[in-house]
Design brief:
By secondary structure, this protein is an alpha+beta fold. The protein has a single domain, classed as CNF1/YfiH-like putative cysteine hydrolases (4-Layer Sandwich), CATH 3.60.140.10. The chain is built from 6 helices and 14 strands. The strands form 3 sheets. It has a 6-stranded mixed β-sheet with strand order 4-5-8-7-9-13. The chain has a 5-stranded mixed β-sheet with strand order 1-2-14-6-3, covered by helices on one side. The protein has a 3-stranded antiparallel β-sheet with strand order 10-12-11. A hairpin with a 5-residue loop joins strand 7 and strand 8. It is globular, with a radius of gyration of 17 Å. The two termini are 25 Å apart.
Amino acid sequence: MQYLQPDWPAPDNIQALTTTRTGGVSQGAFAGWNLGMHVGDEPNAVQQNRVTLARQVRGDITWLEQVHGTQVVRLPHYGPNLEADAAFTDVTGHVCTVMTADCLPVLYCSHDGRQVAAAHAGWRGLLHGVLETTLSMFADPSQCLVWLGPAIGPQAFEVGEDVYLAFTSLSPEAKAAFMPKGDHKYLADLYVLATQRLRRAGVTAIYGGEFCTYQQADQFYSYRRDGQTGRMATCIWRAK
């Protein structure tokens, strides 16, 4: 199995990773380490892949029902409703996890290593404030480190004028994240949009943002590229 580890100065007790599609037992369109139960893959294969991830993190993984919203779940969570797009915890051994295949996975940790979170941010989640809502869970949001994981890059993410207008009507600086293509189409940069919003919320320590799930086909799943495909997981947890 292959996975990525964030290149950021997190405290020593903080562990984090993003899986790739390399390894695993899934076949066909899901070939590799697919962790999504909702995409049409064989459930037994997904379960085997999830067991492999659980062994790697050696913690309690909570799988969210992601809906492109702004809800944040505090872990541990023992209720039936896990419809959320972010998870937060200050408890050792509980793994905040989001799944993606083009959307932006965002990891957070406090400078003192006591609080961590993971958020799933497609353009809808970004627009409606999933990053800011997640950040509000921290005791001191200005003292957070943030890592931007593998997402579709600015050379590949085409959106309509509605998306451009939605962001730029809220903040003129968002224009820097869009490249006009003509015919009312734009190339959008999720990394720039996320960075702008995090900085406005007071975060200065922002890392990552150098991937493209669409273009790096041998390493990542991409819904925009393939349609039917698997999902990667991005995880963060307190090891102690």
